[in-house]
Amino acid sequence: MARRNRNMRNMRMHGDMHMHNCGAWCWHHKGGAGGIYCLGFLGALVYYLQTSTGFWPSVLAILKAAVWPALLVYHLLGL
Known about the structure:
By secondary structure, this protein is an all-alpha fold. It has helices at residues 2-14, 32-51, 55-77.
């Protein structure tokens, strides 16, 4: 019984809420934004790689594709 309580406490501390109570702390049902970010990343990666002309511009294109949401929010909030 003590081992079960210790495991439950570790789950609460580390965010692995796999119990299916579906209360306020139920995290395993949330995560649709990750798929949207992945599609945006892939689209930006294709766009930036098509416009790059060499090795280092391609590396910069990968970095730009990874941080484009932050740049978008920065420019939108700057208006």
